[in-house]
Amino acid sequence: MPLSAFPRTPLAHLPTPIEPLPRLTAALGGPEIFVKRDDCTGLAFGGNKTRKLEFALGHALAQGADTVITAGGLQSNHCRQTAAACAKLGLACELVLNRAVPDREPAYEVSGNLLLDRLLGARLHLQPPGPFDREAGMAELAEKLKDEGRKPYVVPAGASYAMGALGFAACALEIQEQAADMGLAFDAVLHASGSGGTQAGLIAGMLLAEAETAVIGIDIDDDWDALHAKVSEVAADTLDMLGQEKAPLEAALDLRQGYGSPGYGLPNEAMVRAVTLLAREEGLLLDPVYTGKAMAGLIDLVEQGQFGRGQRVVFLHTGGAPGLFAYPSLFQKEMP
Ligand SMILES: *Cc1c(COP(=O)(O)O)cnc(C)c1O
Question: Is position 4 annotated as part of the catalytic site?
């Protein structure tokens, strides 16, 4: 089936702009660096989940759902964008939130995305600290709501399933179209990879477009094996849905590790430096959980000489800046 055959509900401002980052490019002295502004997808402070939700909630509406259930950490950008999309579409939103990140400062429990979830009218199901099975938690809630006569639709965490990844297959095609309009070609698109759907969709879309552009995911957690397997699985499912060959998938799956430590949502120094550098050199706001670590990865790869001077790299800005307000103590240094 072609992409256009899947139900899709418009939520995002598309296409998002691609802009050069001349001051970053000069500071690093490597390839020409561009940014694709998926932080500007337009819905409640934007971010990458909005593209996925166009297809995920299109699917939910086609099934007659009146309620959407999804899950994430307390500062989940995905949950915030889902709450906003549900508000816009007149659907009830139930968020199952667990404490995936230990020992945070007080703002983490009240500000940032969590404040926005409440403002957007979502119903929150806050879990106590400790291990928690999100899939089981959502399934249990779905059963309870069905018993009450509701029609729930479960969006997996991060909307990282084939239906959500279609949004990033469409994004890959959008990037190729923009490159053609700009009269140039991009050698690579680099981005933060968390629950895997963004990377899976981009890989599927680039294969669909028979594009030469490499997709490079930066693991922002610290569990490469699990994420690699997830990207592979979701990309295969997505290619299946699109009726595409799966053979080239493994060769196209490039997931880099070494930038996510000490783990999901936990800061490291290279992230703080990258967030500060982009704010001060380009007026561009990254985030502490995803894009700051991905940018630290890009900076390191450039410093290692992994891209040539004549090459062009697009940094996909996947959003997340509301998360800055959940980590205020990290970013209070003034100019030296
Ligand atoms: C969710 C998220 C990502 C990662 O996308 P996945 O599809 O989960 O891999 C990257 N950046 C931000 C800001 C996010 O919220």
Answer: no
Given a cut of 70, whether residue 79 has pLDDT beyond it is yes
Strand 312-317 relative to strand 92-98: parallel, antiparallel, unpaired?
A: unpaired
Per-residue model confidence as pLDDT tens digits over 59-75: 999 999 999 999 999 99
Write down the pLDDT at residue 336.
57
User: pTM for the full model?
Assistant: 0.98
Q: How many CA atoms lie within 13 A of 159 on its CB side?
A: 33
93: β partners: 68
Residues with CB under 6 A from ligand 1: 47-48, 77-78, 158, 160, 192-199, 287, 290-291, 318-320
First to last CA, the chain: 56
Ligand 1 nearest-atom number relative to CA 287:
13
Q: Are 84 and 119 in contact (CB under 8 A)?
A: no
> What value does the CA radius of gyration of the chain take, rounded to a whole number of Å?
19
Distance of CA 290 from the midpoint of ligand 1 (Å) = 7
